[in-house]
Amino acid sequence: ERLILNNNKIGLNGIGLRHPRVFSNFESLVELHLTDAFADENIVNITTDLYEVFVNSNLSRLAKLHLEQNKISVITEPRVFCPLPRLLDLHLSNNQLTGIDFNIDCMSNLRFIDLEGNRIRGLADEQLSALDTVQSGNKSLVIDLSNNPFSCGCNIENLYSWLHTTKVIVRNSESIRCIQDLSKNPLDPYAAYRNDCPSPVRTTLVDGNHGNHKLIMLLVFCAVLAFLGAVLYVSRFGLKRLRPEFNTSSRKIHYTTIGKCEEQEIHV
């Protein structure tokens, strides 16, 4: 079954506490569409109210949940989706989320997370690890991170590295750009700020061998210095050996004045 409640003004102010079993008669519900479905009042607590609704409703068959365009910016209840054990697709595009601040390891069947068009500037290491954990339990996990204002420079070095090593399928990864120039800059932390990265960062990814190169250069420099020192030492030692011989030779030389040559005898 499919329930579509898009483009409504559902008031969520305490609905989870006042009507926790609002979906209790939808045991066979497979798809729930709540795109732009809630009133703006108290929207900050939407995940807390939804958690109370989900945990008190029998939605054990729900496979697809659409929550696009609801101005969700804060996850006040990280367990909000955990009462949905068979959830496959979670659509959260065009909200105001800044990260994956909800539990995903409790959704063992999750196959797709749509986070397109949010306000994500970067993802923490633990959030990336959580994605890898879900991936390891599934045949495949797909995530869409496109159209987010990712930071440029070293702040997203971990995300850049993760994109090149994870087994999670990142949809539209080739279109991901950092915010400095969305039309030109790929998601490369070294594209604009390569020289400003702290040295531990510069030696981890694109410049991963830079540290080794510096060490090799240092060793070569030391070897050259040692060689020059040896040459100077040998040259100095050789000069010391030649100096006594030069002095001895000098003492054996006698100087005489040049006089008139004796006249030759003439024999008649």
Automatic annotation (TrEMBL):
SUPFAM superfamilies linked to this entry: L domain-like (SSF52058)
Residue intervals passing through the bilayer: 215-234
Keywords: Leucine-rich repeat, Membrane, Repeat, Signal, Transmembrane, Transmembrane helix
GO cellular component assignments: membrane
Domain of life: Eukaryota
Any single Pfam family the record assigns to this protein: LRR_8
Protein name: Phospholipase A2 inhibitor subunit B
Lineage, highest ranks first: Eukaryota, Metazoa, Ecdysozoa, Arthropoda, Hexapoda
Gene expressing this chain: PLIB
